[in-house]
Amino acid sequence: MKWEEIVGRNVRRLRLAKDWSQEDLAGAVELDVRSIGGIERGTQNTTVAVLGKIAIALGGHPRDLFDD
Question: Do 65 and 55 form a contact (C-beta atoms < 8 A)?
Answer without folding.
Answer: yes
